[in-house]
Amino acid sequence: MAGAVKPKRIGPGSRIAIIAPAGPPRADRLRKGLDFLRKRGYMLRVYPQVRRSLGYLAGDDRQRASALMDAFSDKSIDGIFAARGGYGCLRLLPLIDYKIVEDNPKVFVGYSDLTALLLSIYKKCGIVTFHGPMAAVEFGRRLREYTISHFFGTIEGEVSPGIIKKPAGYKFGAINGGASEGPIMGGNLSLMARMAGTAYMPSFKGKIVFLEDTEEEPYRLDAYLAQLFMSTDITEAAGFILGEFTRTEPRYGHVKGWSAAQVLRDYFSRLDQPVLTGFPCGHGKEKITIPIGVRVMMDADKKTVTFLESGVRE
Q1: 239 is in which domain, residue-wise?
Q2: 181 is a catalytic site residue
Q3: What's the predicted TM-score (pTM) here?
Q4: Are residues 150 and 200 in the same domain?
Q5: Are 295 and 183 in contact (CB under 8 A)?
Q6: How many domains is the chain partitioned into structurally?
Q7: Dihedral sign, Cα of residue 131, residue 136, residue 137, residue 142
Q8: Whether residue 254 lies in the annotated active site
Q9: Per annotation, catalytic residue among 120, 216, 217, 283
């Protein structure tokens, strides 16, 4: 890919579609998140599908895919924010008309289960997508200034490319030293493992790969990494940024063994590429917004990550 297509930046006054491609959001958190976004000056179109519930899904597959496609095809919509993650995005991948998405690049934001959509759109359409906070999650709970300022600075184009500052209480580490540069891509480890072997997974070759997960015991993280290492070109990545792996203690009577950190070290210490740890992305308290497809430079010796370009255009 010669360089990902950047969507137009958005800001106060922009019209945002709120969709739920995975699970249904809590009503109180959705209400709080919508109020917050309106106070920031955004105009919102909340798709009726967001308030539907079918088991653990926010409506059936056709309803959720239809909301996504309508949000991309509607010329009055400037950006698309996911309400929450959960489960269900994988089921939508064959239902997406990627030509419509390609013809209508827009700021599209989410994380967790949204990894499937972010990466498939990046792969199929060459469009920068945004791994970042969601309307009924980060904006529907306690508001954190670091997360908020980085999110709006990124999608509104106000944050200049540069070194990512650590939020308070975070400490970057390294498994392997060295420095590397390349387009950044990644997301939720378990989702990426499930995408392996499909036509929707981008190549890892030459990329800076970031990974995160939550509610996965160490032995399950081990299995996901084994799947990626055996079925993809992940060992040809230029470097790795490991985000937060939260709530990973063994449960359900499983014998305690390695921690999540030990599993990660066991896999990545075998490689020659630089590997950073402790990055603020994923399911932790703070998160930066990562434009998937832009070039970054990582230095595991200095423990820095530098974005070399913006994720949006004027």
Answers
A1: 173-307
A2: no
A3: 0.96
A4: no
A5: yes
A6: 2
A7: positive
A8: no
A9: 283
